[in-house]
Amino acid sequence: MGSSRELMAASVDLFLGGACVGCQRPGPALCLCCSSSLDRLPFEAQPSPSPPGLPVVFAVAEYDGVVKAALVAHKEEGRLSLARPLGRTLALSVFGVLSRARGRSADGSAGGSPGVVTLVPAPSTRRTVRERGHDPLLRITRECGRALRKSGVAAVVDPVLRVDRPVVDQAGLTAVERAANLAGAFAVRPRRRLDGRCVVVVDDICTTGATAAEAARATSAAGANVLGVAVIAATTRRRPPA
Ligand SMILES: [Zn+2]
Fold first, then answer.
1. For position 83, what pLDDT does the model report?
2. How far is the CA of 66 from the centre of ligand 1 (A)?
């Protein structure tokens, strides 16, 4: 999918003189300096309030600065070469979820050390994908899987979720409205089960957590052991520390 589009994006960078989305310096879509600013420790990014059923959420950055610029340029402007650094960043967040799951299994509660980790991206509506001409999250998730495997984590990508009924655009909705908009909206594809699979739900951004909670619900309902949610960026909609 999208190979001609990819070629086009590469050509734009090469011949028309691309610039770094972070600092605007001429060159690749993300210069070395801005790219290294994405290598950060994952942190727990539970939204507050947290929607019911939302598992642990890890993020690598606030939705701001270089991360925001890169996500927007990749999603909206088709700067497809950004999928790789964004995928690597998402992998750091997955590591956060996995180390938490390992910790839980060490003290005897739920979790366990997963053999194979299945990355399940939150679904986009078919209309959104058609309008953008590509599926940005799936592209990033595939790069994330690649980065994890390079680091020795047995990771597979399974875009098994789909939007099962009409939903409206989440932008502009309150947290309560978002949750209602998405309640029961996702399902695994027909004839698919995830019994016993260790799943990390992945998304680009976590705002109210409504999308992640619904994706976790749908994957759990199909039999998965959902270890947590990994996102690249979290909005600052979290209760400030007391
Ligand atoms: Zn830069």
1. 96
2. 8
